[in-house]
Amino acid sequence: MEKLTKADQVYKYVSSKLRYLSETGDTGYRRGLFANLRRGVGKTPGELPELWGMIFNYIPDELLGKNKNISHSEWAVYTALTLYALHQQGNEQNMNCTKISVGEAAAKYAKKNECEERILDRLRLVATAESQYDLAYHLRGIIQLLSKDGIQLDYPKLAKEIYLMNYDNEAAAVTLSWGRDFARICYPYTEEKENNNE
Predict the structure, then answer these.
(1) ∠ CA 42-45-48, rounded to 5°
(2) CB 83 within 8 Å of CB 153
(3) What long-range pairs does 115-121 form, CB within 8 A, spacing at least 24?
(4) Partners of 153 in the beta sheet?
(5) What is the set of domains in the chain, with CATH numbers?
(6) pTM of structure
(7) FRET label pair with 59: which of 11, 45, 162, 175, CA 20 to 30 Å apart?
(8) Which run of H or E residues covers position 182?
(9) Cβ-Cβ contacts under 8 Å for 147 (sequence gap 6 or more)
């Protein structure tokens, strides 16, 4: 059996955590988990003891940081799960949906609200973030907009992409895919537009 890359392990681990959250049903325990995760938005992995179990229980050893250093994997898992909890607040429908990228979700919001350039500016901030903390901060602004309009996002995919954003070649591929997804919805090609440009 082929060994999973760290990026794929991040994807798989976040998928398992989201499955766990959905299987707890509509209980006080589940509501407590979501409240704790939302409190973690804007903080760092390990900062809130009440999140240690949710973030670190059963995490593969390869994804853990060493000593006091937070690994890229831990940041990716933590950011995705806390933002998911923020996104889910006030929405009955599950806000996690397979294959919807940040670019596509942002484009759906932009089209619905006729604010393509404003949302594109927000996406640029995400794409050019210089640290994990900045990336999480700028993603948070987009997630809050998506939550307001009930627009879903693929969170295991997001976690994997957050992880890959730490590596220049991979980051370029991630942001390219976001740009393509955004343009496909907001600026679709038509023969009529092509003819007008001639």
Answers:
(1) 80
(2) no
(3) 116/186, 116/187, 119/145, 120/182, 120/186
(4) 96
(5) 6-190 (1.10.520.40)
(6) 0.92
(7) 175
(8) helix 168-186
(9) 86, 87, 88, 89, 90, 91, 95
